Amino acid sequence: MHGGVRFGVILIPIGNRFIHLLRGGEDELHGLKLDWKRFVSEQLQDFCREEIRAVKTYSDLPVTTNMMMYFSPLNYDKWAEELDVISWDSYPSWHTKEDEVPIAVWAAFYA
């Protein structure tokens, strides 16, 4: 297939995958959305793998990256196989409420 419109979805070929753009009708086609998330995660992980390879060429230090809470577009379980250390980026909304204890508890234990 060379792209086109199928079932109200515009398909744009990239390699052996397709980018899908919805064209009216349903808000989401869950199978396509899941495939898109897998594609994005795999592409970013492949990019990270190349960065690791480049760094490891010149260094034996552990490889690390920052992740954000549970960011659903990325499959963190697969990323964990590639990295030595994963740290967490946290940006609590300080100074937005008079009582900052709830945000502190959330940042420390749940996020």
Query: Over the alpha carbons, how many angstroms does the gyration radius reach?
Result: 19 Å
Q: What assembly state would you assign to the polypeptide chains in this entry?
A: single chain
Which strand order spans the largest sheet, edge to edge or round the barrel?
Answer: 1-2-3
Q: Span from first to last CA?
A: 43 Å
Number of helices: 3
Quick check: average pLDDT? 78
The residue fraction in helices comes out at: 25-40%
Shape: flat
Number of strand segments: 5
Strand content: 15-25%
Order of helices and strands: EEEHEHEH
- Can you tell me the residue ranges where pLDDT is under 50 for at least 5 consecutive residues? 3-7
Structural class label: alpha+beta
Largest sheet: 3 strands, antiparallel
Q: Which key terms come to mind for this protein?
A:
111 residues, alpha+beta, two-stranded parallel ribbon, 3 helices, 38% helix
Description of the molecule:
The chain has 111 residues and is α+β, with helices and mostly antiparallel strands. The protein contains three helices and five strands. A three-stranded antiparallel beta sheet has the order 1-2-3. Strands 4-5 form a two-stranded parallel ribbon. 1% of the residues are buried.
Topology, element by element:
Layout lengths: L3 E3 L2 E6 L2 E6 L7 H27 L7 E5 L7 H5 L4 E5 L11 H10 L1
In short:
By secondary structure, the chain is of the alpha+beta class. The protein is 38% helix and 23% strand.
